[in-house]
Design a protein that fits this description.
The chain is 30% helix and 30% strand. The radius of gyration is 15 Å and the shape is elongated. 11% of the residues are buried.
Length: 93
């Protein structure tokens, strides 16, 4: 039986702190960051479920992307299939 496609996709969420930072960006930069996050989420595939011993806990991975001189820091949670934008920071040249 196939799983519904929506269960295999990662969702993109934005933390409250990141929303406040996004509000200060030019619209074009915000759109490019969102497009990059959506594309990253689309490329992620859920891991094949493997029974793990209770002592092994999967950790959330932190990543970043650079867009128009800004670094967008986000977390990837494979258990919840969620990509969460945490912070937007200006990158100095």
């Amino acid at each position: 039986m196939r799983r519904p496609e929506s269960l295999d996709k990662y969702t993109v969420e934005v933390s409250a702190a990141a929303w406040r930072q996004l509000a200060h960006l030019p619209l074009e930069t915000y759109q490019r960051i969102r497009e990059e996050l959506d594309a990253t989420a689309a490329r992620l595939r859920p891991a094949t479920p493997v029974p793990l011993p209770q002592k092994l806990i999967r950790t959330v991975e932190t990543r970043s992307i650079l867009v128009d001189g800004y670094a967008a820091v986000f977390e990837v949670d494979p258990d919840r299939r969620r990509l969460t934008l945490r912070e937007i920071a200006r990158r100095l040249p």
